[in-house]
Prior knowledge:
The chain is built from 9 helices and 6 strands; from the N terminus they run H-H-H-E-E-E-H-H-E-E-E-H-H-H-H.
Amino acid sequence: MASYPINEFMIEDELEPYPVNIWHWGVKNNYQCFLHWQDSQIIRMNLLPTETAFVTRDCISFKKLHYTCDLAVREQWFVEAKNRGGWKITVAYDPRVVDNIYIRLHPGKKMVECYLLDIDHKFLGCEWTEVCDYYRRMNEKKQALRTRKIQSRAKLNATAQEILKLETSQTEKVSNGHSKRSRLNDMRLHRSAERTVERKEQAWDLTQSSADSQSTLRIPYEVVVQPLSLDDGYVAPHQATEKLRKSRQIKLNNDTQ
């Protein structure tokens, strides 16, 4: 306690400025000005260890846990942090339980209690060592997952490289058996064949459609046969077979004579 104000009597007694020494020196010398009553709760809280917390736009963040307090809400700390950026504050905490942290005001004469937000209620009643151990294990799991992803990606890349090498070697073997000109000719023939197939597939077959249209437009008609009557005086013309039969008969008669 180098900043403690030592008077001339303390200097004469060569008092070392430690709290316990000052206490005993004051009791021995009946210095009532050094002895005064203070609330035991305030004394206990002032004996707690202190560390730095951060006021953010959402909460008072301390050791990855989230807190709030009536003072912060009343004075709109979180709104100010959102508009101007966060800032650091010194808080006291009990290592045995994470439920509350304390903001010291008026050089330790007043303490403002901060409490956990709902998001961290799962840690109620835990010690700080348990919380630190939880986040340490979570960190290890993330690292292990990241390592597995890197290994899996490396394995996939290695497999892809092997496949690429195999395909490249097979392509080179096939290419070595053909000259560059023959390979170009094969490519041209292949493209020509593809274009021929495309033309046949895309061409319109007008013949079939024309035939179909003609068959659909053909109009049937009925042939009317008039009955033959003997009273009409009409004699039907001789058929070709009748002429042939008569000529054969004439030739046969001539041969017999």
